[in-house]
Amino acid sequence: MTETVNLNPPCMIQISRKSQKKSEDKFDVVILEAIEESLGSFRAFDKQEVYFHLKNTYNISKREIPRKIEEFAFAMEKIFGIGSRLIEIRIIEAIHKKIPE
Hints:
The protein has 4 helices and no strands. By secondary structure, it is mostly helical. It has one domain. Helix 1 (10-40) packs across helix 4. The longest helix has 31 residues, at 10-40. The protein is globular and about 35 Å long. It starts with 9 loop residues before the first helix and ends with a helix. 11% of the residues are buried.
């Protein structure tokens, strides 16, 4: 008769998932902060109006942006046209500054 040894006890898997969730939550915060800063750096528009338009036209709330990043990018392109590229660059730069090397 062969005995099976469990190398991954459930408690370790659960801890790992909790750790991963915390990391995802922290990264979501970084993304949202970077977007907030980037939108705030343009005086030509009110960032609250952008969030309002995202929610009402594209069904993307501010807190959902990290989980709907492709939809967010699409909506930004529709809202700002080619100018959305500059906003994306600013967001990427802001994220880069926030993440330790």
